[in-house]
């Protein structure tokens, strides 16, 4: 059976606001890195077939070994599908010498109106074998908590 990592959260903001935060480079830098990391976007092309390159840095390298260097994860993300207010499909490739991190991971962000808010569910398939499932799901949940805090504070 193919592995599927997932996490979800209800965010007190409409789908359009959540979708906007998925396609704003400064917003992504603020909320996408999970707890214990910082992010910086180097390239940005928000269209199907476009994407971005993000440098994720561990301020304390002992807290989590990087995939690219001792304290960084570099990931190239392509936008496979963009459906305003409903879905963002990303294809992520980590820059790493270790084959345990090779391959393309697909992250699908599903947005569903839930009263005045949005149910956000993230599913990840093709997750590299070197990424522990429980740790990955915790990281996705952390990013969702950051997204909620960001969107709810700005909305």
Model description:
With 155 residues, the protein is α+β, with helices and mostly antiparallel strands. It has a domain at 4-33 and 79-154: START domain (Alpha-D-Glucose-1,6-Bisphosphate, Chain A, domain 4, 2-Layer Sandwich). A hairpin with a 2-residue loop joins strand 6 (105-114) and strand 7 (117-125). Strands 1-7-6-5-4-3-2 form a seven-stranded antiparallel β-sheet. The chain has three helices and seven strands; from the N terminus they run βααββββββα. Helix 2 (25-31) packs across helix 3 (133-154). The termini are far apart. The mean pLDDT is 92.
What can be said about this structure in brief?
This is Activator of Hsp90 ATPase homologue 1/2-like C-terminal domain-containing protein. The chain is α+β, with helices and mostly antiparallel strands and 155 residues long.
CATH fold type of the domain at 4-33 and 79-154:
Alpha-D-Glucose-1,6-Bisphosphate, Chain A, domain 4
The H/E string reads: EHHEEEEEEH
Helix percent reads 10-25%
The total beta strand count reads 7
CATH class designation of the domain at 4-33 and 79-154: Alpha Beta
**Strand arrangement across the biggest beta sheet:** 1-7-6-5-4-3-2
